[in-house]
Amino acid sequence: MPHNSPMTYSHNNPEATQKARRLEGQILALIKRGQMKEAIASCQQLNKQYPQFASGWYTCSQLAAKLGNAAMGLRAIENAIRLEPRENRWALQKAFCLAETGQLNPAREIALALDKKQLSSGYQCASLGLLLSRLGRQENALPHYQRAIRLEPELGEHYYNLATIHRFLGNFDAAEDALAQAIEKNPEDYEAYKLRSDLRWQTPERNHIESLQQAIARFGEKPRAAIQLHYSLAKELEDTGQWQRSFKHLRQGADTRRKLMRYDVQGDLDTLSKLAEVYDTALFKNKHPGDQNGQPIFILGMPRTGSTLLERIIGSHSEVYAAGELNNFAQEMMRAVQGLPAAINAGKPLPKTERVAQSAAIDFSTLGKAYIQSTRPTTESHGRFTDKMPVNFLYAGLIHLALPKAKIIHMKRHPLDACYAMYKNLFADAYPFSYNFEDLARYYAAYEKLMAHWHSMMPGVIYDIYYEDLVADIEGQSKQLFKHCELEWQAQCLKFYENQSASTTASASQIREPVYNSSVGKWRNFSSELEPLIKLLRDEGVEFAID
Protein backbone atom coordinates (compact mmCIF):
# COMPACT_ATOMS: atom_id res chain seq x y z
CA MET A 1 0.00 0.00 0.00
CA PRO A 2 1.09 3.66 -0.20
CA HIS A 3 4.66 4.54 0.75
CA ASN A 4 6.77 7.63 0.14
CA SER A 5 10.21 7.28 -1.39
CA PRO A 6 12.59 9.14 -3.71
CA MET A 7 11.38 9.45 -7.32
CA THR A 8 12.90 6.93 -9.75
CA TYR A 9 10.18 7.25 -12.39
CA SER A 10 9.73 9.95 -15.01
CA HIS A 11 7.41 10.41 -18.00
CA ASN A 12 10.55 11.00 -20.02
CA ASN A 13 12.03 7.63 -19.06
CA PRO A 14 10.46 5.01 -21.38
CA GLU A 15 12.33 2.17 -19.70
CA ALA A 16 10.97 3.08 -16.24
CA THR A 17 7.50 3.48 -17.69
CA GLN A 18 7.67 0.03 -19.24
CA LYS A 19 8.85 -1.54 -15.99
CA ALA A 20 6.15 0.20 -13.97
CA ARG A 21 3.44 -0.95 -16.38
CA ARG A 22 4.80 -4.50 -16.35
CA LEU A 23 4.68 -4.62 -12.56
CA GLU A 24 1.18 -3.14 -12.61
CA GLY A 25 0.11 -5.87 -15.03
CA GLN A 26 1.43 -8.50 -12.64
CA ILE A 27 -0.59 -6.95 -9.80
CA LEU A 28 -3.77 -7.03 -11.86
CA ALA A 29 -3.13 -10.69 -12.70
CA LEU A 30 -2.66 -11.48 -9.00
CA ILE A 31 -5.93 -9.75 -8.15
CA LYS A 32 -7.72 -11.69 -10.88
CA ARG A 33 -6.41 -14.95 -9.41
CA GLY A 34 -7.45 -13.93 -5.91
CA GLN A 35 -3.87 -13.77 -4.61
CA MET A 36 -4.46 -10.68 -2.50
CA LYS A 37 -1.47 -10.90 -0.17
CA GLU A 38 0.87 -11.12 -3.13
CA ALA A 39 -0.99 -8.28 -4.85
CA ILE A 40 -0.61 -6.05 -1.77
CA ALA A 41 3.12 -6.73 -1.56
CA SER A 42 3.60 -6.02 -5.27
CA CYS A 43 1.51 -2.85 -4.98
CA GLN A 44 3.70 -1.60 -2.16
CA GLN A 45 6.74 -2.26 -4.33
CA LEU A 46 5.20 -0.43 -7.30
CA ASN A 47 4.22 2.66 -5.27
CA LYS A 48 7.60 2.79 -3.53
CA GLN A 49 9.71 2.32 -6.64
CA TYR A 50 7.60 4.44 -8.99
CA PRO A 51 5.77 7.05 -6.85
CA GLN A 52 5.25 9.33 -9.88
CA PHE A 53 3.45 6.58 -11.85
CA ALA A 54 -0.15 7.76 -11.46
CA SER A 55 -1.72 4.54 -12.70
CA GLY A 56 0.08 2.68 -9.93
CA TRP A 57 -1.77 4.72 -7.32
CA TYR A 58 -5.01 4.06 -9.21
CA THR A 59 -4.38 0.31 -9.04
CA CYS A 60 -3.49 0.66 -5.36
CA SER A 61 -6.78 2.47 -4.76
CA GLN A 62 -8.78 -0.19 -6.57
CA LEU A 63 -7.09 -2.93 -4.56
CA ALA A 64 -7.68 -1.16 -1.25
CA ALA A 65 -11.36 -0.60 -2.07
CA LYS A 66 -11.70 -4.23 -3.14
CA LEU A 67 -10.36 -5.26 0.27
CA GLY A 68 -12.90 -3.05 2.05
CA ASN A 69 -10.54 -0.20 2.89
CA ALA A 70 -12.08 2.67 0.91
CA ALA A 71 -10.38 5.24 3.17
CA MET A 72 -6.95 3.98 2.10
CA GLY A 73 -8.23 3.82 -1.46
CA LEU A 74 -9.15 7.48 -1.21
CA ARG A 75 -5.67 8.44 -0.03
CA ALA A 76 -4.10 6.46 -2.88
CA ILE A 77 -6.24 7.98 -5.62
CA GLU A 78 -5.51 11.47 -4.32
CA ASN A 79 -1.85 10.77 -5.19
CA ALA A 80 -2.84 9.88 -8.75
CA ILE A 81 -4.96 13.04 -9.06
CA ARG A 82 -2.08 15.24 -7.87
CA LEU A 83 0.06 13.75 -10.65
CA GLU A 84 -2.57 13.83 -13.41
CA PRO A 85 -5.45 16.12 -12.35
CA ARG A 86 -7.46 15.83 -15.58
CA GLU A 87 -7.69 12.06 -15.85
CA ASN A 88 -11.35 10.97 -15.70
CA ARG A 89 -10.52 7.49 -14.40
CA TRP A 90 -8.93 8.93 -11.29
CA ALA A 91 -11.91 11.22 -10.63
CA LEU A 92 -14.32 8.31 -11.05
CA GLN A 93 -12.35 6.16 -8.62
CA LYS A 94 -12.25 9.00 -6.11
CA ALA A 95 -16.04 9.33 -6.31
CA PHE A 96 -16.45 5.60 -5.63
CA CYS A 97 -14.16 5.82 -2.60
CA LEU A 98 -15.99 8.87 -1.30
CA ALA A 99 -19.32 7.10 -1.65
CA GLU A 100 -17.98 4.02 0.14
CA THR A 101 -16.79 6.15 3.04
CA GLY A 102 -20.21 7.81 3.33
CA GLN A 103 -19.16 11.14 1.79
CA LEU A 104 -22.09 11.25 -0.60
CA ASN A 105 -22.19 14.97 -1.34
CA PRO A 106 -18.65 15.24 -2.77
CA ALA A 107 -19.12 11.87 -4.51
CA ARG A 108 -22.28 13.20 -6.17
CA GLU A 109 -20.52 16.41 -7.24
CA ILE A 110 -17.80 14.43 -9.03
CA ALA A 111 -20.29 12.00 -10.57
CA LEU A 112 -22.48 14.82 -11.92
CA ALA A 113 -19.41 16.58 -13.35
CA LEU A 114 -18.41 13.36 -15.13
CA ASP A 115 -22.02 12.94 -16.25
CA LYS A 116 -21.50 15.89 -18.61
CA LYS A 117 -18.52 14.22 -20.29
CA GLN A 118 -18.22 11.46 -22.87
CA LEU A 119 -15.92 8.90 -21.26
CA SER A 120 -13.55 7.03 -23.52
CA SER A 121 -14.16 3.36 -22.67
CA GLY A 122 -17.07 1.04 -22.06
CA TYR A 123 -15.64 0.19 -18.65
CA GLN A 124 -15.57 3.84 -17.59
CA CYS A 125 -19.09 4.45 -18.89
CA ALA A 126 -20.43 1.39 -17.08
CA SER A 127 -18.60 2.37 -13.89
CA LEU A 128 -20.08 5.86 -14.00
CA GLY A 129 -23.51 4.36 -14.66
CA LEU A 130 -23.11 2.15 -11.60
CA LEU A 131 -22.01 5.06 -9.42
CA LEU A 132 -24.90 7.26 -10.54
CA SER A 133 -27.33 4.42 -9.91
CA ARG A 134 -25.99 3.90 -6.39
CA LEU A 135 -26.41 7.63 -5.79
CA GLY A 136 -30.06 7.39 -6.81
CA ARG A 137 -29.58 9.02 -10.22
CA GLN A 138 -31.11 6.29 -12.39
CA GLU A 139 -32.08 8.68 -15.21
CA ASN A 140 -28.50 9.94 -15.41
CA ALA A 141 -27.11 6.40 -15.38
CA LEU A 142 -29.14 5.27 -18.39
CA PRO A 143 -27.23 7.04 -21.21
CA HIS A 144 -23.86 5.91 -19.84
CA TYR A 145 -24.85 2.25 -20.01
CA GLN A 146 -26.17 2.89 -23.52
CA ARG A 147 -22.84 4.41 -24.49
CA ALA A 148 -20.98 1.47 -22.92
CA ILE A 149 -22.90 -0.82 -25.27
CA ARG A 150 -22.03 1.31 -28.27
CA LEU A 151 -18.35 1.17 -27.33
CA GLU A 152 -18.32 -2.55 -26.40
CA PRO A 153 -21.34 -4.15 -28.11
CA GLU A 154 -20.22 -7.73 -27.50
CA LEU A 155 -19.94 -7.46 -23.71
CA GLY A 156 -23.05 -9.05 -22.21
CA GLU A 157 -22.76 -7.44 -18.78
CA HIS A 158 -23.47 -4.00 -20.28
CA TYR A 159 -26.85 -5.21 -21.48
CA TYR A 160 -27.63 -6.66 -18.04
CA ASN A 161 -26.73 -3.38 -16.35
CA LEU A 162 -28.84 -1.45 -18.84
CA ALA A 163 -31.76 -3.78 -18.07
CA THR A 164 -31.50 -3.08 -14.33
CA ILE A 165 -31.80 0.67 -14.94
CA HIS A 166 -34.74 0.22 -17.30
CA ARG A 167 -36.42 -1.91 -14.63
CA PHE A 168 -35.85 0.70 -11.93
CA LEU A 169 -37.41 3.29 -14.24
CA GLY A 170 -40.37 1.09 -15.16
CA ASN A 171 -39.27 0.51 -18.78
CA PHE A 172 -40.02 -3.21 -18.70
CA ASP A 173 -40.15 -3.96 -22.43
CA ALA A 174 -36.79 -2.25 -22.92
CA ALA A 175 -35.42 -4.19 -19.93
CA GLU A 176 -36.56 -7.50 -21.41
CA ASP A 177 -34.98 -6.67 -24.78
CA ALA A 178 -31.69 -5.85 -23.04
CA LEU A 179 -31.78 -9.11 -21.05
CA ALA A 180 -32.35 -11.10 -24.24
CA GLN A 181 -29.16 -9.52 -25.57
CA ALA A 182 -27.31 -10.22 -22.31
CA ILE A 183 -28.22 -13.92 -22.43
CA GLU A 184 -27.37 -14.15 -26.15
CA LYS A 185 -23.94 -12.60 -25.55
CA ASN A 186 -23.31 -14.69 -22.43
CA PRO A 187 -25.57 -17.75 -21.90
CA GLU A 188 -23.90 -18.22 -18.49
CA ASP A 189 -25.14 -14.91 -17.11
CA TYR A 190 -27.49 -16.65 -14.70
CA GLU A 191 -28.59 -13.44 -13.01
CA ALA A 192 -29.96 -12.28 -16.36
CA TYR A 193 -32.32 -15.26 -16.47
CA LYS A 194 -33.52 -14.42 -12.96
CA LEU A 195 -34.09 -10.74 -13.69
CA ARG A 196 -35.92 -11.63 -16.90
CA SER A 197 -38.32 -13.88 -14.97
CA ASP A 198 -38.90 -11.21 -12.32
CA LEU A 199 -39.70 -8.41 -14.78
CA ARG A 200 -43.37 -9.23 -15.18
CA TRP A 201 -46.09 -11.78 -14.51
CA GLN A 202 -45.48 -14.71 -16.83
CA THR A 203 -48.46 -16.27 -18.64
CA PRO A 204 -49.12 -19.66 -20.28
CA GLU A 205 -48.83 -17.89 -23.64
CA ARG A 206 -45.73 -15.83 -22.86
CA ASN A 207 -43.00 -17.24 -20.63
CA HIS A 208 -39.45 -18.60 -20.61
CA ILE A 209 -40.14 -21.98 -19.02
CA GLU A 210 -38.71 -24.03 -21.87
CA SER A 211 -35.53 -21.97 -22.16
CA LEU A 212 -35.03 -22.19 -18.38
CA GLN A 213 -35.42 -25.97 -18.46
CA GLN A 214 -32.81 -26.09 -21.20
CA ALA A 215 -30.47 -23.87 -19.20
CA ILE A 216 -30.85 -26.12 -16.13
CA ALA A 217 -30.05 -29.16 -18.24
CA ARG A 218 -26.97 -27.39 -19.56
CA PHE A 219 -25.65 -25.57 -16.48
CA GLY A 220 -27.56 -27.06 -13.54
CA GLU A 221 -24.58 -28.99 -12.16
CA LYS A 222 -22.92 -25.69 -11.23
CA PRO A 223 -24.29 -24.66 -7.81
CA ARG A 224 -24.42 -20.92 -8.44
CA ALA A 225 -26.11 -21.49 -11.79
CA ALA A 226 -28.57 -23.92 -10.21
CA ILE A 227 -29.61 -21.35 -7.60
CA GLN A 228 -30.50 -18.62 -10.08
CA LEU A 229 -32.08 -20.94 -12.63
CA HIS A 230 -34.22 -22.95 -10.19
CA TYR A 231 -35.52 -19.75 -8.57
CA SER A 232 -36.28 -18.34 -12.03
CA LEU A 233 -38.15 -21.45 -13.12
CA ALA A 234 -40.04 -21.65 -9.82
CA LYS A 235 -41.23 -18.08 -10.28
CA GLU A 236 -42.47 -18.67 -13.83
CA LEU A 237 -44.16 -21.93 -12.91
CA GLU A 238 -45.93 -20.21 -10.02
CA ASP A 239 -47.07 -17.40 -12.29
CA THR A 240 -48.60 -19.97 -14.64
CA GLY A 241 -50.36 -21.87 -11.83
CA GLN A 242 -48.11 -24.94 -11.76
CA TRP A 243 -47.86 -24.96 -7.98
CA GLN A 244 -46.23 -28.31 -7.21
CA ARG A 245 -43.67 -28.06 -10.01
CA SER A 246 -42.91 -24.53 -8.86
CA PHE A 247 -42.25 -25.54 -5.26
CA LYS A 248 -40.04 -28.44 -6.33
CA HIS A 249 -37.68 -26.05 -8.13
CA LEU A 250 -37.95 -23.48 -5.35
CA ARG A 251 -36.82 -26.04 -2.79
CA GLN A 252 -33.90 -27.10 -5.01
CA GLY A 253 -32.77 -23.50 -5.33
CA ALA A 254 -33.19 -22.72 -1.62
CA ASP A 255 -31.44 -25.91 -0.49
CA THR A 256 -28.49 -25.20 -2.78
CA ARG A 257 -28.27 -21.60 -1.58
CA ARG A 258 -28.33 -22.67 2.07
CA LYS A 259 -25.56 -25.24 1.54
CA LEU A 260 -23.25 -22.53 0.23
CA MET A 261 -23.76 -20.33 3.29
CA ARG A 262 -21.89 -20.24 6.58
CA TYR A 263 -24.70 -19.12 8.83
CA ASP A 264 -26.03 -20.02 12.26
CA VAL A 265 -29.41 -18.50 13.05
CA GLN A 266 -28.66 -18.68 16.78
CA GLY A 267 -26.33 -15.70 16.46
CA ASP A 268 -29.17 -13.56 15.17
CA LEU A 269 -31.55 -14.87 17.82
CA ASP A 270 -29.06 -13.93 20.53
CA THR A 271 -28.89 -10.40 19.10
CA LEU A 272 -32.68 -9.99 19.11
CA SER A 273 -32.85 -11.30 22.66
CA LYS A 274 -30.08 -8.94 23.75
CA LEU A 275 -31.95 -5.98 22.27
CA ALA A 276 -34.96 -6.70 24.47
CA GLU A 277 -32.70 -7.17 27.49
CA VAL A 278 -30.76 -3.91 27.01
CA TYR A 279 -33.61 -1.68 25.91
CA ASP A 280 -35.67 -2.24 29.03
CA THR A 281 -38.13 -0.26 31.09
CA ALA A 282 -35.41 1.54 33.05
CA LEU A 283 -33.78 2.84 29.88
CA PHE A 284 -37.00 4.20 28.44
CA LYS A 285 -38.05 5.79 31.75
CA ASN A 286 -34.93 7.94 31.88
CA LYS A 287 -35.19 11.38 30.27
CA HIS A 288 -33.67 11.24 26.79
CA PRO A 289 -34.53 14.36 24.77
CA GLY A 290 -33.27 13.01 21.46
CA ASP A 291 -33.20 15.14 18.32
CA GLN A 292 -36.51 16.88 17.69
CA ASN A 293 -36.50 16.52 13.90
CA GLY A 294 -39.84 15.02 12.85
CA GLN A 295 -39.17 14.56 9.13
CA PRO A 296 -38.48 10.80 8.91
CA ILE A 297 -41.20 8.21 8.44
CA PHE A 298 -39.67 4.79 9.12
CA ILE A 299 -41.39 1.82 7.46
CA LEU A 300 -40.08 -1.38 8.99
CA GLY A 301 -40.83 -5.06 9.58
CA MET A 302 -39.97 -8.26 7.78
CA PRO A 303 -39.11 -8.10 4.08
CA ARG A 304 -41.68 -8.95 1.40
CA THR A 305 -44.63 -7.82 3.52
CA GLY A 306 -45.83 -4.94 1.33
CA SER A 307 -43.57 -2.14 2.53
CA THR A 308 -42.79 -1.00 -1.03
CA LEU A 309 -46.50 -0.58 -1.76
CA LEU A 310 -46.86 1.46 1.41
CA GLU A 311 -43.83 3.58 0.54
CA ARG A 312 -45.21 4.34 -2.93
CA ILE A 313 -48.53 5.45 -1.46
CA ILE A 314 -46.89 7.76 1.09
CA GLY A 315 -44.20 8.85 -1.37
CA SER A 316 -46.85 10.01 -3.85
CA HIS A 317 -47.71 12.80 -1.39
CA SER A 318 -46.43 16.19 -2.53
CA GLU A 319 -44.64 16.80 0.78
CA VAL A 320 -42.93 13.41 1.07
CA TYR A 321 -39.80 12.04 -0.60
CA ALA A 322 -39.52 8.25 -0.87
CA ALA A 323 -35.85 7.68 -0.03
CA GLY A 324 -35.98 3.89 -0.34
CA GLU A 325 -34.10 1.44 1.85
CA LEU A 326 -31.46 3.45 3.68
CA ASN A 327 -28.62 1.87 5.66
CA ASN A 328 -27.97 5.22 7.29
CA PHE A 329 -29.42 4.61 10.73
CA ALA A 330 -27.48 1.39 11.31
CA GLN A 331 -24.31 3.00 9.92
CA GLU A 332 -24.57 6.04 12.15
CA MET A 333 -25.33 3.85 15.16
CA MET A 334 -22.21 1.79 14.42
CA ARG A 335 -20.08 4.93 14.13
CA ALA A 336 -21.39 6.13 17.47
CA VAL A 337 -20.67 2.78 19.14
CA GLN A 338 -17.17 2.64 17.66
CA GLY A 339 -16.48 6.06 19.15
CA LEU A 340 -17.07 4.83 22.69
CA PRO A 341 -14.01 3.99 24.84
CA ALA A 342 -15.53 0.60 25.67
CA ALA A 343 -15.66 -0.26 21.94
CA ILE A 344 -11.88 -0.67 21.76
CA ASN A 345 -11.36 -4.40 21.36
CA ALA A 346 -7.71 -4.92 20.46
CA GLY A 347 -8.43 -4.02 16.85
CA LYS A 348 -11.12 -6.70 16.49
CA PRO A 349 -14.81 -6.08 15.74
CA LEU A 350 -17.06 -6.28 18.77
CA PRO A 351 -19.47 -9.23 18.87
CA LYS A 352 -23.03 -8.29 17.87
CA THR A 353 -24.43 -8.72 21.37
CA GLU A 354 -21.71 -6.48 22.80
CA ARG A 355 -22.45 -3.82 20.18
CA VAL A 356 -26.08 -3.94 21.29
CA ALA A 357 -25.04 -3.44 24.91
CA GLN A 358 -22.77 -0.54 23.97
CA SER A 359 -25.44 1.15 21.83
CA ALA A 360 -27.43 2.03 24.96
CA ALA A 361 -24.54 4.22 26.11
CA ILE A 362 -24.32 6.51 23.09
CA ASP A 363 -25.71 10.05 22.99
CA PHE A 364 -29.15 9.55 21.45
CA SER A 365 -29.61 13.15 20.39
CA THR A 366 -26.26 13.15 18.59
CA LEU A 367 -27.24 9.93 16.84
CA GLY A 368 -30.51 11.46 15.66
CA LYS A 369 -28.72 14.52 14.29
CA ALA A 370 -26.09 12.35 12.58
CA TYR A 371 -28.77 10.23 10.92
CA ILE A 372 -30.66 13.28 9.61
CA GLN A 373 -27.44 14.84 8.37
CA SER A 374 -26.43 11.64 6.60
CA THR A 375 -29.65 11.68 4.56
CA ARG A 376 -29.30 15.29 3.48
CA PRO A 377 -27.73 14.65 0.06
CA THR A 378 -31.11 13.32 -1.10
CA THR A 379 -33.69 14.56 1.40
CA GLU A 380 -32.76 18.16 2.16
CA SER A 381 -35.22 19.75 -0.30
CA HIS A 382 -38.20 17.79 1.04
CA GLY A 383 -40.33 18.40 4.12
CA ARG A 384 -40.75 14.71 5.01
CA PHE A 385 -39.14 11.50 3.81
CA THR A 386 -39.60 7.75 4.15
CA ASP A 387 -36.91 5.24 5.10
CA LYS A 388 -38.21 1.76 4.36
CA MET A 389 -35.26 -0.38 5.46
CA PRO A 390 -37.08 -3.48 6.84
CA VAL A 391 -34.40 -4.45 9.37
CA ASN A 392 -34.80 -1.13 11.14
CA PHE A 393 -37.26 -3.14 13.25
CA LEU A 394 -34.14 -4.13 15.19
CA TYR A 395 -33.55 -0.48 16.08
CA ALA A 396 -37.15 0.67 16.66
CA GLY A 397 -36.41 1.49 20.30
CA LEU A 398 -33.19 3.29 19.48
CA ILE A 399 -34.90 5.19 16.63
CA HIS A 400 -37.51 6.50 19.07
CA LEU A 401 -34.87 7.49 21.63
CA ALA A 402 -32.81 9.29 18.97
CA LEU A 403 -35.74 10.81 17.01
CA PRO A 404 -38.81 10.88 19.28
CA LYS A 405 -40.87 12.86 16.76
CA ALA A 406 -40.20 10.49 13.86
CA LYS A 407 -43.05 8.23 12.78
CA ILE A 408 -42.53 4.47 12.95
CA ILE A 409 -44.79 2.33 10.73
CA HIS A 410 -44.73 -1.43 11.18
CA MET A 411 -45.86 -3.38 8.09
CA LYS A 412 -47.41 -6.73 9.00
CA ARG A 413 -48.70 -9.68 7.00
CA HIS A 414 -50.16 -13.13 7.67
CA PRO A 415 -47.18 -15.18 8.97
CA LEU A 416 -47.53 -17.89 6.30
CA ASP A 417 -47.76 -15.42 3.43
CA ALA A 418 -44.85 -13.47 4.90
CA CYS A 419 -42.68 -16.55 5.40
CA TYR A 420 -43.51 -18.03 2.01
CA ALA A 421 -42.77 -14.69 0.32
CA MET A 422 -39.35 -14.58 2.00
CA TYR A 423 -38.62 -18.23 1.26
CA LYS A 424 -39.30 -17.81 -2.45
CA ASN A 425 -37.20 -14.67 -2.77
CA LEU A 426 -33.52 -14.91 -3.67
CA PHE A 427 -31.94 -12.07 -1.72
CA ALA A 428 -28.58 -10.68 -2.80
CA ASP A 429 -26.90 -10.67 0.62
CA ALA A 430 -29.44 -10.08 3.38
CA TYR A 431 -31.84 -12.36 5.29
CA PRO A 432 -29.77 -15.58 5.39
CA PHE A 433 -32.42 -17.21 7.60
CA SER A 434 -34.90 -17.33 4.69
CA TYR A 435 -33.59 -20.43 2.87
CA ASN A 436 -34.46 -23.06 5.47
CA PHE A 437 -37.79 -23.68 7.21
CA GLU A 438 -36.29 -24.15 10.67
CA ASP A 439 -34.15 -21.00 10.44
CA LEU A 440 -37.11 -19.08 9.05
CA ALA A 441 -39.54 -20.18 11.76
CA ARG A 442 -37.11 -19.43 14.59
CA TYR A 443 -36.20 -16.01 13.25
CA TYR A 444 -39.80 -15.07 12.52
CA ALA A 445 -40.83 -15.98 16.08
CA ALA A 446 -37.95 -13.91 17.48
CA TYR A 447 -38.99 -10.95 15.30
CA GLU A 448 -42.57 -11.13 16.61
CA LYS A 449 -41.30 -11.31 20.18
CA LEU A 450 -39.07 -8.26 19.70
CA MET A 451 -41.87 -6.24 18.11
CA ALA A 452 -44.13 -7.11 21.05
CA HIS A 453 -41.34 -5.85 23.34
CA TRP A 454 -41.09 -2.54 21.46
CA HIS A 455 -44.86 -2.06 21.74
CA SER A 456 -44.73 -2.68 25.49
CA MET A 457 -41.81 -0.27 25.97
CA MET A 458 -43.27 2.47 23.74
CA PRO A 459 -47.08 2.30 23.87
CA GLY A 460 -48.70 4.10 20.95
CA VAL A 461 -45.43 4.92 19.23
CA ILE A 462 -45.40 2.19 16.57
CA TYR A 463 -48.27 2.20 14.08
CA ASP A 464 -49.16 -1.30 12.84
CA ILE A 465 -50.71 -1.70 9.41
CA TYR A 466 -51.64 -5.04 7.87
CA TYR A 467 -51.00 -5.78 4.21
CA GLU A 468 -54.29 -7.65 3.95
CA ASP A 469 -56.23 -4.66 5.30
CA LEU A 470 -54.39 -2.24 3.05
CA VAL A 471 -55.18 -4.05 -0.20
CA ALA A 472 -58.79 -4.66 0.89
CA ASP A 473 -59.44 -0.98 1.69
CA ILE A 474 -56.59 1.07 0.31
CA GLU A 475 -58.33 4.42 0.67
CA GLY A 476 -59.60 3.93 4.22
CA GLN A 477 -56.32 2.48 5.48
CA SER A 478 -54.26 5.15 3.74
CA LYS A 479 -56.35 7.98 5.21
CA GLN A 480 -55.89 6.60 8.72
CA LEU A 481 -52.17 6.24 8.14
CA PHE A 482 -51.82 9.78 6.80
CA LYS A 483 -53.63 11.10 9.85
CA HIS A 484 -51.17 9.28 12.09
CA CYS A 485 -48.27 10.71 10.09
CA GLU A 486 -49.77 14.22 10.38
CA LEU A 487 -50.08 14.57 6.61
CA GLU A 488 -53.00 16.13 4.80
CA TRP A 489 -54.87 13.60 2.66
CA GLN A 490 -54.14 13.80 -1.08
CA ALA A 491 -56.25 11.65 -3.41
CA GLN A 492 -53.34 11.37 -5.87
CA CYS A 493 -51.70 8.93 -3.44
CA LEU A 494 -54.22 6.28 -4.49
CA LYS A 495 -52.72 6.43 -7.98
CA PHE A 496 -49.26 5.53 -6.72
CA TYR A 497 -48.74 3.34 -9.80
CA GLU A 498 -48.60 6.50 -11.92
CA ASN A 499 -45.65 7.75 -9.87
CA GLN A 500 -42.72 7.80 -12.30
CA SER A 501 -39.97 7.92 -9.70
CA ALA A 502 -37.48 5.07 -9.79
CA SER A 503 -37.77 2.04 -7.52
CA THR A 504 -34.80 -0.22 -6.81
CA THR A 505 -36.54 -2.84 -4.66
CA ALA A 506 -37.51 -6.40 -5.53
CA SER A 507 -41.06 -5.10 -6.05
CA ALA A 508 -40.04 -2.60 -8.75
CA SER A 509 -42.33 -4.29 -11.29
CA GLN A 510 -45.40 -4.76 -9.10
CA ILE A 511 -45.62 -1.18 -7.85
CA ARG A 512 -46.18 0.05 -11.41
CA GLU A 513 -49.61 -1.61 -11.31
CA PRO A 514 -52.81 -0.74 -9.40
CA VAL A 515 -53.26 -2.55 -6.09
CA TYR A 516 -54.21 -6.23 -6.34
CA ASN A 517 -55.05 -8.88 -3.76
CA SER A 518 -53.80 -11.99 -5.57
CA SER A 519 -50.90 -12.29 -3.10
CA VAL A 520 -53.26 -12.57 -0.11
CA GLY A 521 -53.45 -16.20 0.98
CA LYS A 522 -51.03 -17.34 -1.72
CA TRP A 523 -49.50 -19.79 0.76
CA ARG A 524 -52.65 -21.91 0.39
CA ASN A 525 -51.51 -23.03 -3.06
CA PHE A 526 -48.62 -24.74 -1.25
CA SER A 527 -50.39 -25.86 1.92
CA SER A 528 -49.07 -29.42 1.82
CA GLU A 529 -45.50 -28.31 1.01
CA LEU A 530 -45.62 -25.77 3.84
CA GLU A 531 -46.89 -28.18 6.51
CA PRO A 532 -43.42 -28.53 8.12
CA LEU A 533 -43.15 -24.73 8.30
CA ILE A 534 -46.63 -24.43 9.82
CA LYS A 535 -45.67 -26.90 12.57
CA LEU A 536 -42.34 -25.18 13.24
CA LEU A 537 -43.97 -21.76 13.53
CA ARG A 538 -46.59 -23.04 15.94
CA ASP A 539 -43.94 -24.85 17.99
CA GLU A 540 -42.20 -21.45 18.28
CA GLY A 541 -45.42 -19.87 19.59
CA VAL A 542 -46.41 -17.94 16.46
CA GLU A 543 -50.19 -17.61 16.32
CA PHE A 544 -52.19 -17.50 13.07
CA ALA A 545 -55.40 -18.79 11.54
CA ILE A 546 -55.46 -21.16 8.57
CA ASP A 547 -59.21 -21.62 8.18
What do we call the CATH topology of the domain at 265-539? Answer: Rossmann fold
Q: If classified by CATH, what would the architecture of the domain at 265-539 be?
A: 3-Layer(aba) Sandwich
Kindly report the spatial arrangement of strands forming the biggest sheet: 2-3-1-4-5
Supply the helix-strand structural class.
Answer: mainly alpha
Mean pLDDT: 91
Q: Helix share of residues?
A: 55-70%
Number of helical regions = 26
Shape: globular
The CATH C-level class name of the domain at 265-539: Alpha Beta
Termini separation comes to 64 Å
Unreliable spans are 1-10
- Determine the CATH superfamily of the domain at 265-539: P-loop containing nucleotide triphosphate hydrolases
- Main β-sheet: number of strands, strand sense, barrel status? 5 strands, parallel
Describe the protein in words.
There is one protein chain. The chain is mainly α and 547 residues long. Among the domains are: 187-260, no CATH class; 265-539, Rossmann fold, CATH 3.40.50.300. The chain contains 26 helices and five strands. It has a five-stranded parallel sheet with strand order 2-3-1-4-5, with helices on both faces. Helix 15 (265-278) runs parallel beside helix 23. The model is unreliable at 1-10 (pLDDT under 50).
